[in-house]
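Hi, here's the filled form for the chain we discussed.

Project: internal
Contact: R.S.
Residues: 71
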Amino acid sequence: MPTNAISASRAASYLNLKEPEPAAAAAAQSLLLARRIGAPRCVTLVNDLLPRFQPYSSAQGVAELRQLAAA
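And the returned structure, exactly as it came back:
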């Protein structure tokens, strides 16, 4: 599994544990890497996670992740 897919999976795991800060950091890392190397599947993995961040909109890194995803 590519590193960026692992980061997206790690973000999902953190969300399952209700730990939004490390989840946002892992998702942002995955998204940046996926864009840099041209991995649309991994971009999709992160985009699919975004609704799960809704309850944590005030958590550190979540707003930045959403801005990054929207760019």
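Let me know if anything looks off before we file it.
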